[in-house]
Amino acid sequence: MKLTTLPKVVEPDPQQLIWKERLNTSFSLNEMHAFLEGSVEESIHTLCLMQEIERDPILQINPDYYELSRDEHREITAKKIKRLAQYMENDEPNFQNFQDRLNLIALIDPQLGTRIGVHLGLFLSAIRGNGTDEQFNYWAFQRGAVYMKDIYGCFSMTEISHGSNVAHLETLAEYKQEKDCFTITTPHIGATKWWIGGAAHSATHTVVFARLIVKGKDYGVKTFVVPIRDSNHDLYPGVSIGDIGEKMGRDGIDNGWIQFSGVEIPREYMLSKFTKVDKDGSVEEPPLEQLAYGALLGGRVTMVTDSWRTGERFITIALRYAVGRRQFTIKGEEIENQLINYPLHQKRLLPYLAWVYGMSIASNQIQKDYKIILQNLDDGVKSGDFGLLTKAIDGLKGLFADSASLKSTCTWITAELIDESRQSCGGHGYSAYAGFGKGYADHVVQCTWEGDNNILAQNSGRITIQKVMQFEKKGNVSGINYQFIKDAKRDEVILSNEDDLKNLETLNLSIKSIIYRISLKCISTLSSNGKNWDTIAKEKLSLSKLYTAEYIMDKWISKISDIKDTGVKKQLINLARLFAISNIDKFGVYFLQHSVISNACYEEMERYTYEVLKSVRDEVIGLTDSFKLSDFFINSVLGNHNGDIYHNYLGTVKNLNDITQTKAPYTSELLSMLNRDSVSSREKNQKSEEILAKLRI
Amino acid sequence: MKLTTLPKVVEPDPQQLIWKERLNTSFSLNEMHAFLEGSVEESIHTLCLMQEIERDPILQINPDYYELSRDEHREITAKKIKRLAQYMENDEPNFQNFQDRLNLIALIDPQLGTRIGVHLGLFLSAIRGNGTDEQFNYWAFQRGAVYMKDIYGCFSMTEISHGSNVAHLETLAEYKQEKDCFTITTPHIGATKWWIGGAAHSATHTVVFARLIVKGKDYGVKTFVVPIRDSNHDLYPGVSIGDIGEKMGRDGIDNGWIQFSGVEIPREYMLSKFTKVDKDGSVEEPPLEQLAYGALLGGRVTMVTDSWRTGERFITIALRYAVGRRQFTIKGEEIENQLINYPLHQKRLLPYLAWVYGMSIASNQIQKDYKIILQNLDDGVKSGDFGLLTKAIDGLKGLFADSASLKSTCTWITAELIDESRQSCGGHGYSAYAGFGKGYADHVVQCTWEGDNNILAQNSGRITIQKVMQFEKKGNVSGINYQFIKDAKRDEVILSNEDDLKNLETLNLSIKSIIYRISLKCISTLSSNGKNWDTIAKEKLSLSKLYTAEYIMDKWISKISDIKDTGVKKQLINLARLFAISNIDKFGVYFLQHSVISNACYEEMERYTYEVLKSVRDEVIGLTDSFKLSDFFINSVLGNHNGDIYHNYLGTVKNLNDITQTKAPYTSELLSMLNRDSVSSREKNQKSEEILAKLRI
């Protein structure tokens, strides 16, 4: 709502600034969106789903979302879950469509995404992964879990004293032969199931990770379906559940704790695709145990997608604001300069824009790989063909390694991106209605759950080192995404002049090469310290992050070569350069130490970086409009498409905070303070000379 | 509350672990606390204030603090303000005592600290700094603002379209000679006062930053006292105020926006220590304009103290948890390893512990300087002695430079510290009751307000470069804290072997030297690019951070030499080493590029770092107990002194979330979803073959 301005003053002009740059965009947004989404078809598919979501009366999201209390979040989330159950039935049998829908919903309402993600991606995935076909068929289709009907599931893995170390969980599942059942027991406080999403108030069933004990022997952690609430939502005896309460974010999720006190479940409720227990208590152990722990991989893959989309959303807000906001004049100018024109501002934000493009590539690739590998596994298990299965397992191992690196690196980058974007909007970034506060609080849990980032990165780094060891020993290396090790030259300086910095292949080679050299260094350290991997923890962490950089660069370069549209191509080359250079800069110490870059070239790179930043800067409006996120999906007073930042902001604040209420409910407290009597009168002059004289001896 | 454990299982033992390490502490906590607080007297003083605060019935803080809604925060905060007004009267005339009290309150309830900080530190400081003695005396003492009586002030500086660029604010204060008054006007939306703490519902008066216009001439931004609410808390006509609503954190503060529509104030309400306007409209301009902008410096100084104390609080939580928490076994061990034993965990957290110690030194020093400089200024202005005044202004300039670097560096470090501490506690760090979520959200605004960190760091970096220019030109340099430039050797490698890494003087020299060499490099860039300071923005940022590192190391080394207690001394040397090394590592590219450290020594440093980490690790319980923060000040389920993490955590969750309420208010939503009819029945079989056959032509 435009407001009245007095004459002879100049009001701010963010709208004009943003529109001017928008109109100067040199490339096709449609083409770019297709690149980001993976294809023209995917682009259309995504936009259709977005339209459907933003029009749905129940799925609405507005700035007041940022004001809701925990109870309100919970209630609204429940209504939305119910609504989404209808979409589930409607999408059937195209469950991928529902998954895509859910990924988009997760962008604007992460807690809602998780609520359903836990049921589908953890509870049902665990049954699918660990149960027999018959078991899956019963719980998913006959009972209706796949449509959130009859059954609402949660996933009881973590305990209060064990999160990452799943093999050491302490809940017990003891086989009681006389009753042909398992008894589920929480033997002490440390084994209390904790953080269980959906447990506090929603779930009717849960998959429990518990130690299988048969005839006193401990077979390690297996999975069991345990009913916890009946169809009237009353808790079963022996099942104690509580809300774990307020969290940093995502309060729409009713995370709970569960304690089991000798809860009996039929033997048939054990998920038995791999481990089987007979009526007489004989245990058949799994031939391929690693297959039993696949439930979390889907989540990790989804988090790469989620990081990408979340990155799109927040970098758009920051960059639109940076174009529309003026502050300080530069030498020789009258009118204040746009924030985005300051080299430091570009350096703070634009590498993250490049990362967002990079993450779209990573997301598209790993989603594709994941689907193929899952299919191969299913085919392998069904056919019983050991060769097929072994190949599928190799794929699974590769996915484990890729997702460990990509999940940890991308969720971290996105957390940084949100925070830097907020800071770049100055004070206004701190308004809840800017979206960054809740965005950050909701996002950062992804750095911790479903595989703590530090632990995943350690795994990924270790795998890379082992692959280099393998190559050093055999001259060959397994795993499709580790073939780059062969190309990584060993001793030369790779970046030595500006031409090298412009060449994407050379930049990429430098990243491959630094991975190689750091790994060699680690191998030498390991051989001298008795294979103590803990002392090279920092290097493993760096290797994991560099692996993602290499993974993205590799695919980026090959995708660029497929692009016809020269306008789009030019932008993507620029962004890829910026992506590579900012990664080299981040790990500059390694690059210098290992002489992958010459000292002179490093200095040259610092200068050249500003050149690349400048050319990306010139198209920032187009490069963020390309994400095609409507204002509904942006949901920020600072980032609307129309660029009218100040009217949007004041308008929202006025809408949500009734200005006719000029007095607060606590006004009387303040008035009684301000209008209070003097100290001496309040204490009846008890310290006055007159009184003291009376009291004097 | 200890709970029942079944036999034959081993429950977690965090209490035992923490107590065992506590009992092995090798140094005196009292001595260490005295070091941290600056002296034995200060140590006692702080502890007495803490006791008083934690016992006060109104000032209570509990885990439910993390659950409060905005309205609840506001109301409780108002009650606490009222309570603190009594302490103000009680502390009089020792206002320093009240300030110390307020700094401690800010640790547990930052919003409350700010509420009073805005009134005292901004509103009243502005009157003190910019008003005449008579003006200050009237508003502060005669009216009672200094006791929060009669007057509650806010500080109307920032506008919706101007924050950092104060000189460009657009609110108008036009002198109307015929009525001998100023008219305060918000000419357009961009000049709307925004983020004004206390404006939405509390303040009776405000200091307004507005452009002084007399007879059509614009004299730039000056300050005016403007009454906004009467003694009944009704807004004056022409004053429009609204709540800016929900924020990322600190919702107990009623930040508001203000628009003035021709509000008249008497000429005498202009703060006239420097600029004066006569009845006839003649304007006397200030001889020393820089004195007029001192109001924010106190806030910056306080933020150094606040960063230190906040750092103490959160690193204590993370380190107690790291000692008490076990996860994963290491080779050859049966029982799981404590988190703190992992080198990566040490590397993630212990440099921040060193920073906390460093920040205590910085805080003590800059607080001392601040008091002296303020006194000198007062003396200078009162005496009218130009020599005295010039000296005081030099001090002010030095304080401006120091506080720019220290405020920005320390608030950033503390933000990182909170976030890394949270992540280091895994999933449990995400619980609101751990304290990190609100702690982070409340803290990070310090990186933005009262001087955006990036802008302050640019200022600081620029000053350093100018000082080096001065030294290069004249062989001399002004400013007590820039004398180090003289010592900074230029060309040699300073760190070349392990002995160098152990020597605090040498480590410090390497930091001085890198500052020198980066500055020289910048000077050469500036001379070749036509003095474009923007292109060396990154270097300025680094210089600012390195300046703080040098500032701290310098004082740290001299303090260590004063210490008698050998136990304490040993710890402080270790921590100082870690502090220096982690700073060198952070800026490793510069150190290598400029050959301040040799390649070989850099490698040596990586190994040596783990040695230093290990020796700090061995005393982490003692080194955090030394902060003497009671559980009241820690307010985290993960960080209690007793170490009984899991019982504390479950106990709090059960207290705050009634477990007898097994059904949520939204249960009916979920039940109606779970127990719904089939799709075909809900749509009355309208897609069945039977129906479709009827419809077929």
Automatic annotation (TrEMBL), chains A, B:
One of its GO terms (cellular component) is peroxisome. It catalyses: a 2,3-saturated acyl-CoA + O2 = a (2E)-enoyl-CoA + H2O2. Residues 154-263 form the Acyl-CoA oxidase/dehydrogenase middle domain. The keyword Flavoprotein applies. FAD binds at T158, G197. Its cofactor is FAD. Pathway: Lipid metabolism; peroxisomal fatty acid beta-oxidation. GO terms for molecular function: acyl-CoA oxidase activity; FAD binding; fatty acid binding. Its main location: other. The active site is at E450 (proton acceptor). It is found in: Peroxisome. Keywords: FAD, Fatty acid metabolism, Flavoprotein, Lipid metabolism, Oxidoreductase, Peroxisome. One of its GO terms (biological process) is lipid homeostasis. The keyword Transferase does not apply. Residues 293-463 form the Acyl-CoA oxidase C-alpha1 domain. SUPFAM superfamilies: Acyl-CoA dehydrogenase C-terminal domain-like, Acyl-CoA dehydrogenase NM domain-like. Residues 30-139 form the Acyl-coenzyme A oxidase N-terminal domain. Pfam families: ACOX, ACOX_C_alpha1, Acyl-CoA_dh_M, Acyl-CoA_ox_N. Belongs to the acyl-CoA oxidase family. This is Acyl-coenzyme A oxidase. It comes from Pichia californica. The lineage of its organism: Eukaryota, Fungi, Dikarya, Ascomycota, Saccharomycotina. The gene is POX1.
